[in-house]
Amino acid sequence: MQNGELNGSEEYKDKQGGGAGLPLTKVENNDGKKVLTNGMSRVHRILSEDEINQGKTTRWTELEIHGRVRNLSNALWQVSHLSALFLNGNQLTRVPPEISQLTNLTMLDLSHNKLRSLPAELGLQGNPLSPEINKIYHESNGSHKLLHFLHDHLAINTAPPPEREWVMIRHADPDRPIATFTVLCYNVLCDKYATVNQYSYCPSWALNWEYRKMSIMKEIRNYEADIITLQEVETEQFRLLFQPELKMLGYSGIFSPKSRAKTMNEEDRKYVDGCAIFWKSEKFEMDREHLIEFTQVVVKKASTSEHMLNRVMPRDNIALCAVLRIKENVYNNRRMTMAAADNVVGTPLVVCTAHIHWDPELCDVKLIQTMMLAHELYKLLEEVAEQFRITPQQTPVLICGDLNSLPDSGMV
């Protein structure tokens, strides 16, 4: 920087795929090279004092803006001589359509932001487009139509994700009866939430439920888990798809919609999503089920707190629990004696699946719902322990769900 201006044409090479480095200052070495701490190398030139005294000036055509920026100033769109604009490594959620005013721009870097869509004003004039694309582009609202066309004709060449590395907590003792079973937890994304506006980066055909349901069932069959917990299951799809399909595979299951279903007519109730639990009938049998409705819990617990009622009660998330009895088929230990089998067969297993509120702006609601879940679940454990004449600490519990939270958050 010289006199508050960016000097000369700057070339950068990102070695790490990260964001741009810090601005260069006059006190740095004027050797034209600098390697920043984040691995970025840049070549630059700063005017000497003699050049400044001779009246020489710079003509800068490139600009970078960084520092976790969330919004861009309208003044930026007046700098029409820019040929390169580097906005990478920020927190941008949208690109204003006014960017079309930068008519000389040939390089635009928007990597490592939080963008879900791009403005249709990003022009394609003067490019050797194919006849098909060129025809769409020159139609009314052509840019917008072209983006949708490219989305829907996106080539599927992405490799499948790598196999997960399993973490062994401890090895089973061959001389002790150990219940061994697999668990699958899956938010299947209810059809009414899979909108083009919400998932603008995804082809419309891939959002279509008729396409997705086949992929979902294929994945469920592939894992063949002993216990399956699902979130965002539409009421009608539980009845028409999940329950009959999984029954043919040897599963039993339960389902409950979100609390709002109680206030709806029969037709609208079909499209309310909820939680479901399935288990292999040969390995488990259900003793009872238990529903946790956070709206009802908060009314009982916070009747004197108007703020908590206003924040938490409108969110009708639920948690669904199944108290299962473990069958002998779960124990793979062939050396287990008849006496040992009599002691462990019929042991309870509490399975819980929960769907915590989604909105990232309502972290307090997420935390309160998680606290209510833990409290209500422990009450259920006490009831189960008393029924089976064991302690709550001896009652195995399996908590699954979509917590809409990061691993290091307070909810987890």
TrEMBL record:
Catalysed conversion reaction: Exonucleolytic cleavage of poly(A) to 5'-AMP
GO cellular component: cytoplasm; nucleus
Keyword Transmembrane helix tagged: no
Xref: Pfam families: Exo_endo_phos (PF03372), LRR_8 (PF13855)
UniProt name for this protein: poly(A)-specific ribonuclease
Major location category of this protein: cytoplasm
Region (Disordered): 1-32
